[in-house]
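agent> Task received from the user: take the single chain below, predict its 3D structure, and emit structure tokens. No templates, no multimer pairing.
agent> Plan: (1) validate residues, (2) run structure prediction, (3) serialize to tokens, (4) report one or two observations.
agent> Step 1 OK, no nonstandard residues flagged.
tool_call: predict_structure(input=
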Amino acid sequence: IEAIAVDRRLSLAGEVPGYAIVNLNLLADRILPGLDLSLGIQNLFAQKYADPGGVEHVQDSLRRDGRTAMLRATLSF
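)
tool_result: status=success, residues=77
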């Protein structure tokens, strides 16, 4: 489990609120001979948050992804 907290930050037009997100990563080694599995869920609780944009962006703040998941299977032989 990973927790990330970011305080509020200045943007070009004011301020972007702070946020806290939780990521979860699970690993199962050797499920079968030579087979490893991993599951990662980023932003586990689907927190809505944004980062400040720069002068090159039209938006003042850039909305970040909601919950995302990744499943990986690795086969070694």
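agent> Step 4: summary for the user.
The beta strands are 2-6, 9-11, 14-16, 19-32, 35-42, 50-52, 61-63, 68-75.
agent> Done.
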